Amino acid sequence: MRVIAIDGPAGSGKSTVGRRLAERLGLTYLDTGAMYRCIAFAAIRRQIDPADPDPVGRLAATVEMSVIDGVVTVDGVDATLEIRGPEVSRAVSMVASNPAVREQLRARQRSWATQHGGGVIEGRDIGSVVFPDAILKVFLTASPEVRAQRRAKEMTDLEYDQVAADIARRDAADRGRADSPLVEADGAVSIDTSTIEIDEVVELLAALVESRS
């Protein structure tokens, strides 16, 4: 399988780079963060406390989800917009810290890669845990200010200060969780996207992939 693993914190450019790199290389793309948001959305919809580990873990084993070409469905319901809303954003860290959820979704991610013969897969533990043997492991980052500005533009209903606080909280949760914390994988190419154009990052990564294929 040709797996390109892209990890990094919120707002670092993972999704934009991942999509464009997949298009550039003719590969499929998977946003694993959306999968965790699907579980959070399903829990809220079923009135399950996202912080309650056992029922949320069971939910992760049974919920039907699809993340294809930017369209997200959960149990047959289009949740593309809802999973990016503030309620799900507040709950997703609790869901992502649940070991049972992570185990279930890692299995789904590996199954997806097998079905597609690899792909560009982005998240927070892809190179470090899910695909440590990826042909290219990338760790994207950017300054907290730049990341908050990017997210504030995406979420027009939220103020910059609120977005910045949410990002700081998510960073602490992602890096501090016991199961698969956000870390730079061994051998990963680290890129600070604060001042680099996305197209430049994509071309750099495409050249690295092609040199290793």
Description:
There is one protein chain. The strands form 2 sheets. Strands 2-6-1-7-8 form a 5-stranded parallel sheet. Strands 3-4-5 form a 3-stranded antiparallel sheet, covered by helices on one side. It has a single domain (2-212), classed as Rossmann fold, CATH 3.40.50. A hairpin with a 2-residue loop joins strand 3 and strand 4 (71-74). The model has no long low-confidence stretch (mean pLDDT 94). The chain is globular. Helix 1 crosses helix 9 (198-212) and helix 7 (144-154) crosses helix 8 (160-176). The chain has helices at residues 14-25, 32-45, 53-62, 86-96, 99-116, 126-130, 144-154, 160-176, 198-212, and strands at residues 2-7, 29-31, 65-68, 71-74, 77-78, 118-123, 136-141, 189-192. It has 213 residues and is α/β, with parallel strands linked by helices. It is 53% helix and 16% strand. The termini are close together.
Provide a short characterization of the protein structure:
The protein is α/β, with parallel strands linked by helices and 213 residues long. The protein is built from nine helices and eight strands.
